[in-house]
Amino acid sequence: MLDGFIGIALCGAIGVLLLGVGLRETVVVWRLRRHGIRVWGVVVDNVRVEKRDSGPTWAPVIAFADQRGYRVEFTTKMRGSGMSLPTGRQVPVVYLPYDPQNARVSMWRHTVGPVVFTLLVGLVFLGTAVLIARTT
């Protein structure tokens, strides 16, 4: 009985946390689509990002000039296979005027993809919590 409660609480908490993060990202993407400034950026580098469990991955570094003419560099939030961008490629970038450091690559896989992935994983954890509750 105690194991079931711990499983329900843990899966439920993780699910709610992930849904919260997903909803926050949904709001950010909505703001970017509605109020974002669109510019072109260039992939200037791909940096190695160490992960403890699965080994290193590569994250593209994108540079662009904001509306004041300052050079801004950022790395993408979503990383992994299928998310890489070759060095030298021009990519569409969108950012909020008051926060150019939190720019996003304006491609579906870099804006909507992370939101969908986070929401789905959150639903999986909540579903697991429900399944545990039903079997105990």
Structural features, described:
Keywords: Membrane, Transmembrane, Transmembrane helix. This is DUF3592 domain-containing protein. InterPro entries: DUF3592. It comes from Streptomyces murinus. The protein is of the alpha+beta class and 136 residues long. The chain has one domain. The protein is built from 2 helices and 5 strands; from the N terminus they run αβββββα. The chain has helices at residues 2-35, 108-135, and strands at residues 37-49, 57-65, 71-75, 90-96, 99-105. Strands 3-2-1-4-5 form a 5-stranded antiparallel β-sheet. The longest helix is centred in the first third of the chain and has 34 residues, at 2-35. The protein is elongated and about 60 Å long. The model has no long low-confidence stretch (mean pLDDT 88).
Return Rg in Å: 18 Å
What's the arrangement of strands in the largest beta sheet?
3-2-1-4-5
> SSE order in H/E notation?
HEEEEEH
Continuous helix count: 2
* Shape assignment: elongated
Biggest sheet details? 5 strands, antiparallel
Number-wise, the strands total 5
Strand and helix map with partners:
Blueprint: H1 2-35, E1 37-49, E2 57-65, E3 71-75, E4 90-96, E5 99-105, H2 108-135
Antiparallel strand pairs: 1-2, 1-4, 2-3, 4-5
Helix pairs in contact: 1-2
Organism: Streptomyces murinus
Protein name: DUF3592 domain-containing protein
Keywords: Membrane, Transmembrane, Transmembrane helix
Fill in the keyword field for this structure:
elongated; 136 residues; five-stranded antiparallel β-sheet; alpha+beta
